[in-house]
Amino acid sequence: MVRASFGNGGTGKFSMYWRGAWLVISHMSLGPSGEPRRSALVACLSKVPVAVYGAIGGAL
Questions:
Q1: What single DSSP character describes residue 21?
Q2: Which among 41, 39, 26, 30 is positioned nearest to 8, based on CA atoms?
Q3: Cβ-Cβ contacts under 8 Å for 24 (sequence gap 6 or more)
Q4: How many CA atoms lie within 13 A of 17 on its CB side?
Q5: Considering the entire predicted model, what is its pTM?
Q6: Are the C-beta atoms of 9 and 24 separated by less than 8 Å?
Q7: Residue 58: how many CB atoms within 10 A of its CB?
Q8: 27 close to 14: Cβ distance less than 8 angstroms
């Protein structure tokens, strides 16, 4: 299980992808976002990541 941040949970979605041995988790949404909030994500990973990075984005 990993934790990820999100800005606007009502209109967004999470994406997870590998960059070599790093796991990147992003959340993109529409509309304004307030303070980032956290959510638990359950994923079956093919390997243990060396590092986990997060990104939040959306419409202005």
A1: T
A2: 30
A3: 16, 17, 18, 52, 53, 54, 55
A4: 5
A5: 0.77
A6: no
A7: 16
A8: yes
Tokens representing residue 10 in the block: 């009502």
Q: Tokens for 29?
A: 């949404």
**51: its two tokens:** 């590092």
Instruction: Name 10's Cβ contacts closer than 8 Å, sequence gap at least 6.
Output: 29, 31
Rounded to 5°, the CA angle 42-49-51 comes to 105
pLDDT, tens digit, for every residue of 2-49? 878 888 777 888 899 999 999 999 988 887 777 788 888 888 998 999
Please report, to the nearest 10 degrees, the dihedral formed by the alpha carbons of residues 6, 12, 17, 22 taken in order.
-10
